[in-house]
Amino acid sequence: MSAYAQPPGGRGGGPGRGPGGGGDGIWMRNAVLAESPTFDPCNAHQPPTGEYHYHDNPVCLRLQLNDNIRKDGNRYVEQAGPWRHSPILGWAYDGNPIYGPYGYAKATDAASGVTRMKSAFHLRAMTERHTLARWAAELHGVSEKLSEAQYGPAVDAAHPLGWYVEDYEFTAGGGDGLDLYNGRFAVTPEFPKGTYAYFVTIDEKGAPAFPYVLGRQYYGIVPARQTRVSAGTVEAYNGTDNAAPLLGSWLRKYNAESARVVDGNKAEAGPVATWPGQAKPSHPDIAEVLYSKDWVYVSGSGLASHTMGPWYEPGGEVFRNWPRDQDFQDRFPRQPQAAAVKSTNQLGPLGRWVNGVALFNMLDGASWSNRQHDDAMSPPPGGGRGGGRGGMPPPPPPPGEGWPGPGHDEGQL
Asked: Total domain count for the chain?
């Protein structure tokens, strides 16, 4: 089943779908499979908080950055080659860059040619969900052989392989050397001496390939959230000084324009600068980049300079959530460090794409409930920015940053 097919039996949908109550937290629903009918043509949508985000391959951003992709009518098509190394598309909160789907064939050899990066995950061969792959068992802190109370539903038309993220297994050394976190140490055009980097993964047909961007854990240490800073307390980056990739890769050239949306209720009118929940025009992409010796701070609306929308429900009606200016500021460490104990990422932003749009992982907040015999919303155990295994969960973020509370799918109200 394609990741862009309709959800089995009409279930799933966008953020905020599904029965309330509390899944078992073992079989976590895959947002890319369940929610893709509500994605816009750029592979993005938003919860009720209005935080526009991509769960996977950000095709419109890639087109803006000339990342081996073209638009053919209403379709985004991967170029057949020859390919150029993908640009930096984003940054995870651990300070490591996120590249598009194309990297050097040999991780530390820039002369080895460019190849499509292949994920080291693949679907398990199973008909019953009675066991977990090793990586998933370790992540959940349970045995690979599950008790009956931990079973998931049988693989069937309503719950096809891939419906849950635990349907995948990881092969060390598989793909192009991508690890459990969907990254590798490699030389890149921006880092000729090498860096740890995550990669967007797609398959040979251009469809998103699990785990899509980041795996379920960060590779590096994720700092706690910061107090908002302003120019005067730190330096403002003007595009000419201290031009390190973490400073110079942010998309700013369209920031003076207005963010624009296609309203599904009147798509024939074309892109508009105001829409429900956004009464005044807002500027897209990155508004400001500040830096100190140890940190880079980026601010923006969280809205993209490419056209956003339209969004529709699986039944064809207009999707009820609309993007809104998030007025965010995030910080990223200038000297990322590998974490001895990896922190598990959960719902909400895991970083920022270079246009300021939020990076979300493959979860949608639902998991299988044996009691309800259906998928149900459930607060993921631990994790989040700066928490997860080996540490206390972080405090809740400020309102409006897109983190769901207990029992809510991506911020369902």
From this structure: 1
